[in-house]
Amino acid sequence: MQLAGLAAARLALAIAPHARRIWVAAGPGNNGGDGLEAALHLHQWGKEVVVSWMGSPAHAPPDALMAWQRASAAGVPIQPTVPEAWLKNMDGQDLCIDALLGLGANRALSPGMQARVQAIQQCPGQVLALDGPTGLNLENGQWLGGPDAVAVHAKHTLTFIAAKPGLFMGHGRDACGQIWLEGLGHKEDHSDIPPQAWLNVVCAPAAKSHASHKGSHGDVAVIGGEPMALNGMGMTGAAVLAATAALHAGAGRVILSLLSEQGAALVPPDLMQRDWQCLELEQLHVVCGCGGGQAIRARMPEVLQRSAQLVLDADGLNAVAQDVGLRGLLSQRGGQRPTVITPHPLEAARLLKTSTAQVQNNRLQAAQNLADLFQCTVVLKGSGSVIAAPGHTRRINTSGNGRLATGGTGDVLAGLVGARMAQGLGAFEAACAAVAQHGQLANDWPDDLALTASGLAQHLR
Known about the structure:
CATH superfamily of the largest domain: Ribokinase
Distance between the termini: 47 Å
CATH topology of the largest domain: UDP-N-acetylmuramoyl-L-alanine:D-glutamate ligase
Largest sheet: 10 strands, mixed
Structural class: alpha/beta
Number of domains: 2
Number of helices: 17
Shape: elongated
Strand order of the largest sheet: 8-17-16-15-14-13-12-9-10-11
Radius of gyration: 26 Å
CATH architecture of the largest domain: 3-Layer(aba) Sandwich
Strand content: 15-25%
Helix content: 25-40%
């Protein structure tokens, strides 16, 4: 705790070097003890510090009690209430340290805790959260108490020993601001506890060698695009987007097999078109399901049984969720024929026969359950996409932003995964590389330019 408090105090000086006033909102447990230790150092370094401590000497954990004793002996002002009048004199250079709740919080905030969270949010100074912002479940990135719960939105978060999954998933990516890690002397290679996941990093795609040709970089076939006549909404554009993404990502040849002739005019001249019956699936990297609607269902048995490598998305996944026979065929592909499925949370819930809320409440486990159930690589899409596969440590993707929340970007991702598999990456590696690059493109997108799926596909490399 003393090390954590010292690290917090040092970071506080670094991010708010000109702060005149620092308010520490300290909870009753060990997270509050970290805040008390930080307050001790900041007080000794000449800062004007006030601590609002929700604990009491009679009920504090031993380490937090020791921190309170040390801070009290040093003359740090500690009080049980929010110093409202004092806070009104703070400005943007000042700092609030959120030390209310840390790892392990899993239920709705008490009224007293909610009042302090609201005071933090109204504080003029910037906010530094210790371990994680109060109100955020650090395991899954969901709000404690449901979607309407109050929570701290920090500008900086200092987390200890190891990064927590919820900081990088769900609402965590909005609530945490800049994330800092202090190991407190713990070393990765000295731990007996395996990681829950690794963070997924962006790697530059391999350059094509000069002595290569179009056959050197794999053939991708995209099957999808339901006709307008079936349900009154044509979806050929989704298949075209996936194929365009595969083409721009460097696949040697891309073959588009539309389920409707109505979309033929949309097809760029760089894409080959071929009728379904003429596809040699055993030799192709197949992307199936994009805009497939109900029409894709009749194609699914052959796709699952014959495709050499397969990326299954959207309506292909919905067909599997609704058909026991298709579920069996997907499972039978196993590790012999590499397969990647790319569900969003609702599609994952359908496949797992559960609810979207249950998927979101444990995204890491939901992705792993799908991977084990179907013996394939899974990309569970969303804020902090999770990549899982049997025999691999899961990855949490950290690239991307809310601009990807627009129609068609998932189709682009499916095509990109197919291209990376065609270029020789294994299913898990291809999924990790594609998800990271897909998100990074959104991060790099010009602020004054609307992000569209077609634009995203055309900017792939």
